[in-house]
């Protein structure tokens, strides 16, 4: 459980042909649930059921353990690095219902800067928004809510929406330049006619996330600023391919493709690819493959393939 094996993925679509290139003794005392490189791949963070987070400096193929972060009272499910424009920030979520945000300053000295205890049950997934939106963290919980934690005006603020009744397992942000995020005449959030001065600072791309839940459903949400105080609204989709818990969802990076792409995986051993061809069009899905075992995690390459 305490060794981390790093893989290079060979097959373009079905990741069942892998070659290990390195292994790391993480010194965790229990199962590892997540590992993430920072923006520059110079640091590696791991988290475990032993309630700790381990930080490693990466120099070539050598991983030097430098810090152990504590504070959670239960298994740590997931970790996420913020964009470096905000400094060296690492968020973590846990079975104990909390989200912790640590900052490194100076080097290898980590400080807990915020504790988010909004949820009443396990927080299963966290995801930082694209940096163009600011410092915003989405948190998906077994209580069925998704909370949005934002640092603005020298303070952290929280808002949330009800995703489902059985529990939310995963959350992923749309890329900043996703189809439908930028102003169009058909987009009530950002009609360019509402910006007669054509001032770029007055144009706000739409906030969008995708979630995966215990009720077997993938949902795509859009923040509608036209509602009083703003409201998260579910987008249209066709069909529901999964028959068991949706374990993970991942919105693909936008690399000039003429459509949006999302991947979802499930306890039912399947992986689905969702596409949206144009703004406000319904999402449609294609089943990729049914595996021999439940599929718990998904991740796109930086090119979105």
Number of strands: 22
Radius of gyration: 19 Å
Overall pLDDT = 87
SSE ordering: EEEEEEEEEEEEEEEEEEEEEE
N-end to C-end Cα span: 30 Å
Largest sheet: 4 strands, antiparallel
Helix/sheet category: mainly beta
Low-confidence stretches: 5-17, 185-194
The side-by-side strand order for the widest beta sheet comes to 3-4-5-6
Helix content: under 10%
Q: What does this protein structure show overall?
A:
- With 305 residues, the chain is mainly β.
- It is built from no helices and 22 strands.
- It has strands at residues 3-9, 18-25, 32-37, 43-48, 53-59, 62-69, 76-81, 89-94, 99-104, 110-116, 123-128, 135-141, 145-152, 155-162, 168-173, 208-213, 218-224, 231-234, 246-251, 260-266, 270-276, 284-290.
- The strands form six sheets. The protein has a four-stranded antiparallel sheet, with no helix packed on it. Strands 7-8-9-10 form a four-stranded antiparallel sheet, with no helix packed on it.
- The radius of gyration is 19 Å and the shape is globular.
């Amino acid at each position: 459980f305490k060794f981390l094996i790093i893989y290079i993925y060979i097959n373009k679509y079905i990741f069942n042909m892998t070659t290990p290139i390195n292994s790391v003794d993480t010194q965790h005392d229990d199962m590892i649930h997540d590992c993430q490189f920072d923006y520059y791949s110079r640091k590696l963070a791991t988290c475990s059921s032993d309630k700790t987070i381990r930080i490693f400096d990466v120099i070539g193929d050598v991983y030097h353990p430098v810090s152990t972060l504590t504070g959670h009272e239960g298994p740590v499910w997931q970790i996420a690095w913020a964009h470096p424009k905000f400094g060296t920030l690492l968020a973590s979520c846990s079975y104990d219902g909390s989200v912790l945000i640590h900052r490194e300053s100076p080097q290898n000295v980590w400080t807990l800067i915020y504790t988010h205890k909004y949820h009443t049950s396990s927080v299963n997934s966290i995801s930082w928004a694209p940096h163009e939106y600011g410092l915003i963290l989405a948190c998906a919980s077994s209580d069925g809510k998704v909370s949005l934690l934002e640092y603005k005006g020298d303070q952290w603020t929280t808002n949330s929406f009800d995703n489902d009744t059985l529990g939310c397992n995963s959350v992923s942000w749309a890329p900043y330049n996703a189809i439908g995020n930028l102003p169009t005449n058909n987009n009530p959030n950002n009609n360019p006619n509402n910006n007669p001065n054509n001032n770029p600072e007055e144009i706000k791309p739409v906030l969008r996330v995708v979630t995966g839940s215990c009720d077997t459903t993938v949902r795509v949400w859009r923040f509608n600023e036209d509602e009083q105080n703003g409201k998260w609204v579910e987008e249209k989709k066709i069909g529901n391919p999964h028959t068991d818990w949706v374990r993970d969802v991942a919105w693909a990076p936008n690399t000039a493709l003429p459509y949006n792409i999302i991947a979802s995986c499930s306890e039912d051993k399947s992986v689905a690819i969702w596409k949206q061809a144009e703004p406000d069009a319904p999402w449609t899905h294609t089943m990729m493959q049914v595996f021999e075992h439940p599929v718990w995690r998904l991740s796109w390459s930086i090119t979105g393939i």
